[in-house]
Amino acid sequence: MKTICCSLHGCTFEASFQRAPSTCRFMRTGVTEGGIMCPVLFSLYVNDMPSHSRQVVLAPYADKMTMSRQSALLDNFLTSYLRDLERWMREWKISSNVSKSTAMLFAKAYRHFPTPRPVHLFGEQIHWVETAPFLGVTLDTQLTWSTHVDQVRKEAAQRIAMLALLLNRSSGLSIITGVCCISSSSDL
Fold first, then answer.
1. Given pLDDT bands bounded at 50, 70 and 90, which one contains residue 64?
2. 82 closest CA partner among 64, 101, 63, 100
3. What value does the mean pLDDT take over residues 129-149?
């Protein structure tokens, strides 16, 4: 525990807006960013997040959190859970950008459900969506992957078109420069 306290002791932060920095301030809560211990500290920090035992599965990854539940009575449960989560977040001084939060209802391809009631966190509505990106994959409500495949196909076509302009015979680029272009475009 002493190691953890030492890694947080004396941490400071500052912000900047249009190249004008703020004054340097000490961190009172939170986890520092970029350190080796950050993932461990963050896991410890959110370890007691409310989960309603077996009714909810929480899947944290870095600063992302996915909550899932299998139930026909989703509306009442979700409202109740978000109320508990909001109370916990206030207690531990954790903020959330609710505008980046989305809700999805997954169903088998042949089943269609009416859109559930609106849900709120910190007074802001969490919007129900048909597709949402999560960890580099675009999910859709029926888990068909078609939206994600279409998106990847479109990105690949754009990169091929860009490379075709650079690597055609009239571009004047050497083979070595072309190979460098191809290698660097795979990192985009």
1. confident
2. 101
3. 88
